[in-house]
């Protein structure tokens, strides 16, 4: 949270000083859509730290985003829009456990009806594929359930799309690694974030996890594939 305009500018050099002392620094940048931030401030009736008695709340949020633009790439970014407290807690625990010596290749599923995640580096749209939602049997399920997996595995267009996304990432992944990045978030979106996007995120993560130990892996010690889902996939989905 921004406490003053000057405090933001002091953060990057301060972090660098701490790192030079040998301290392992983990930076987590929490973000959200502007309308969500405005709603949160309004509901809690808390004054925005940049309120000067002149700016409106939307103007304060916009100014805060401008001030943070230069530092939001310092650490790992999480878009908390539409994210409940339990999911955020789980994602933070996952972040803390990650190996900083390796690039974290994060496959994130989402629903376009909720908006594109702000933390995405690459975004792929799979809404053009057949939707399991229209099958009454598969409607309450999600992309980790066997029936949905079997349906998409036997859908030629879905497999063609999967192959194209996989090949694109494989081609450009060495460049992201060479750029000394710590995280690469690949967002896969369908309409509701329940079936197709979850299936793709899980399958892509399994592929790159297997690639780390398979023959010809370019740098098996520098990549950690993982997933996270904006739709609850702890059990069969209900919506």
Short note summarizing the structure:
With 239 residues, the protein is α/β, with parallel strands linked by helices.
Describe the structure.
This protein has 239 residues and is α/β, with parallel strands linked by helices. Helix content is 42%, strand content 15%. The protein has seven helices and six strands, in the order αβααβαββααβαβ. The strands form two sheets. Strands 4-5-3-6 form a four-stranded parallel beta sheet, covered by helices on one side. It has a two-stranded parallel sheet with strand order 1-2. α2 (34-44) crosses α3. The two termini are 33 Å apart. The mean pLDDT is 85.
What attributes characterize this protein structure?
single chain; 239 residues; alpha/beta; four-stranded parallel β-sheet; two-stranded parallel ribbon; 7 helices; 42% helix; globular
Strand-helix topology:
Layout: H1 5-20, E1 28-31, H2 34-44, H3 57-68, E2 76-79, H4 85-97, E3 103-111, E4 122-125, H5 146-153, H6 156-178, E5 183-190, H7 196-213, E6 223-229
Parallel strand pairs: 1-2, 3-5, 3-6, 4-5
Largest sheet, in brief, is: 4 strands, parallel
Low-confidence stretches: none
Compute the separation of the termini in Å. Answer: 33 Å
Q: Please state how the strands of the largest beta sheet are arranged side by side.
A: 4-5-3-6
Instruction: Provide the succession of SSEs.
Output: HEHHEHEEHHEHE
Average pLDDT, all residues? 85
Judged by helices, strands and strand pairing, the structural class is: alpha/beta
What share of the residues lie within helices? Answer: 40-55%
How is the quaternary structure best described? single chain
Please state roughly what percent of the residues sit in beta strands, choosing from under 5%, 5-15%, 15-25%, 25-35%, 35-45% or over 45%: 15-25%
What is the helix tally?
Answer: 7
What is Rg? 20 Å
Number of strands: 6
In one word, what is the shape?
A: globular
């Amino acid at each position: 949270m921004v406490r003053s305009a000057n405090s933001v500018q002091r953060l990057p050099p301060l972090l660098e000083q701490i790192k030079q002392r040998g301290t392992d620094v983990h930076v987590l940048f929490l973000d959200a859509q502007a309308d969500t931030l405005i709603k949160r401030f309004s509901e809690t009736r808390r004054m925005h730290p940049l309120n000067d008695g002149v700016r409106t709340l939307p103007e304060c949020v916009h100014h805060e985003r401008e001030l943070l633009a230069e530092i939001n790439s310092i650490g790992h970014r999480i878009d908390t829009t539409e994210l409940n407290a339990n999911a955020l807690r789980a994602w933070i625990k996952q972040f803390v456990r990650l190996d900083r010596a390796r690039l974290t290749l994060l496959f994130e599923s989402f629903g376009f009806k909720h908006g594109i995640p702000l933390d995405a580096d690459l975004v792929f749209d799979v809404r053009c594929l057949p939707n399991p939602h229209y099958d009454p049997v598969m409607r309450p399920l999600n992309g980790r359930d066997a029936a949905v997996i079997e349906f998409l595995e036997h859908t030629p267009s879905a497999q063609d799309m999967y192959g194209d996304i996989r090949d694109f990432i494989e081609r450009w992944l060495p460049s992201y690694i060479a750029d000394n990045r710590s995280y690469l978030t690949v967002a896969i979106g369908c309409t509701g974030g329940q079936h197709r996007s979850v299936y793709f995120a899980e399958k892509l993560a399994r592929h790159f996890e297997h690639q780390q130990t398979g023959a010809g892996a370019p740098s098996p010690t520098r990549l950690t594939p993982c997933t996270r889902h904006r739709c609850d996939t702890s059990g069969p989905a209900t919506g």
